[in-house]
User: Fold these one by one.
Assistant:
Number 1:
Amino acid sequence: MRWLPFQLNPDLPESGIPREEYVARKFGARGKGVNERVTMAGRQVGIPFAYEKMKVQPNTLNAHRLMLFAERTGKQDELAEELFRAHFIEGANLTDRDTLADIAGRVGLDRKAAFDYISGDTDREQIARADVEARSAGIGGVPFFIFNRKVGVSGAQDPEMLLDAMEQALDDSDK
């Protein structure tokens, strides 16, 4: 499994924007209801979303760069989980380099090396290009799953739908 970069909000400033402002812009009056529905769905599967803790809607370019950094040491899955936990449960500001470095340290990556990496420009263009490629391929949101580089599934789906897509991708590979 590989995590590929896709920014939901690539046009946000690098420092992000206040979460309340973002929700108001994107959803208007129904914004509070959107968070409540996701929170209720999360509870059903044991994910304690804490949208009330989120103060910043981040530009995630550096978080995606950090994912590439983690991939090189086999820690990409662990980092993805910690980034999700930090953002959705702890309300961490994923635009803050110290915060990102701390999250990297939580999964066993060298904190200083991670901080130095995201403080520079290494892989910035690579991540931006991959994001553009995803959009050019028709990907417009997350989650988006690509199985065996053949079958794409967009959005949160039931496990049965995902299993069907996986089986289709395997069947297609035999032809």
Note: The first strand starts at residue 17 and ends at 18.
Number 2:
Amino acid sequence: MNWDQIKGNWKQVTGKAKEEWGKLTDDDLDVVAGRRDQLAGKIQQRYGLAKHEAETQLAAWERKASESWFTKS
């Protein structure tokens, strides 16, 4: 998956983001609206992480993305 696919399907992906980073609120995810840099910033803020660590976690999450994330069950 690439970030454009994640961004284009943001509403379906927000649940996966909340599973990964439970401290993110619905409001956080609404503000992010699929923007990768904003998501990294929110992760950094909520978890008190260095920018590099937030980026590392986000990159790992992005690599886990699959087509099943974008289909409604």
Note: The chain has a mean pLDDT of 92.
Number 3:
Amino acid sequence: MPEAVNVNAAHGEKLIFEQGQRGRANTYFPSGRSAEEFLPKTQLRGPLPLPDNSELDVVRHFTRLSHRTFAIDVGFYPLGSCTMKYNPRINEAMAAQPGFKDLHPYAPDSLAQGALAVMYELERSLSSIFGMAAFSLNPAAGAHAELTALLIAKAYFEKAGQGAVRRTVIVPDTAHGTNPASAAMVGYKVISLPSDARGRVGVAEIKSVLGDDTAVCMMTNPNTLGLFEDHVAEIAAAVHAAGGLMYYDGANANALMGNARPGDMGFDLMHLNLHKTFSIPHGGGGAGHGPVGVAQHLVPFLPVPVVTKNEREQYALEFERPETIGSMRSFWSNFAHAVRALTYIYANGGEGLTRVSQLAVLNANYVRAKIKDFITTPYDETCRHEFVASAQELKRETGVKALDIAKALLDRGFHAPTIYFPLLVPECLMIEPTETETKETLDGFIAALREIVETAKTNPQAILDAPVNTVVGRIDETRAARQPDLRWSPPVSGPV
């Protein structure tokens, strides 16, 4: 059997399981005594294969690993569509208040008035900012929220007696990748609609696919190319005339706050990614938060519970709603994220949130204008919070692809932008600088991109070999996806 390669050990850091010695820690009973003497049989379990380390060993190990981790507190994330912006520390301070962090999720309403007030105020704030009648804080994250919105649409059509007929969802190719998957999970048929030469949804094109079977048109505005859908009102009118609903994917809402509202554009349903627009930490598999907003005619179908307030300023969780689609998750919301988001809203106020979006648009256009002389920008017009570039021409000239540019940026201290999405742009780089980055940071990123392109033209192999300064160099990404090795096993003793 070939010997397994330990990537971490090759870089001076053994796995936690490979550190320590038997008996160094996890000794809870005096010599000669056992757990059976202290615990009832129902609480006993077999031995667990845990590492045997001292506390200091553990702290040092994970601290060393943390120094290798790229984070928003360390450097710039230009990830298009992901809105990886700074997470203000005041958000964390508020979420850590004892009355919030120590509150039991099953506490009665009378003992959770502060927490319920937070949820109520956040729901009312989001409804105001985005022009919807009401929001549900129940969904856990973006794709979960898409599923929730489509289940609401399905319940709406079933109540109207049209559930068996309206089975088609229209998804433009500039929508987000999870949209068609969410529609398929609900049992809908998906029609993919190509964008026009301007990178937008054409009114004539969408009218050509509308019919009695149309349930929902899923869009985001600005779209994934960073372009504002300037015919959205006409599109919404056409969909509504056909009896369908308009759904807004809120992943790009960082471009809109205080400047435009999906409800005013004609959208009936929408979701938000609070872990994007409202500065909640995300990434690495951590919790997100994806509230769903609806127009007035869809309010009865929202998930339960809904936070209500009576005339005596008392808050309560309401579960009895006969037309609700039910609960989408355990408990009521990702509550700590609700605290963070409301803190962000209160800290900025209406004028501040408007300024956030304006600066996000300004930063994106600054980077776009600076790089277009050395890398192709297919849509050469004012963008919103993000834009797309293409390495297709560079690839033809030098063999250096978008992937290679992304790897080379790691060597220069920057996280890579989103690559190969959206699919309609070959060798795509989707760049979103957000509003929190300074001009100096953006200039450094622009300079790094320029230097990579120039190096690609004179010494392409240097870029094809990148990264060389990171802890781990290029990996076999195909093998990592198809043959993941995520579990440590102790060495096998004896002959194999």
Note: DSSP finds 16 helices and twelve strands in the chain.
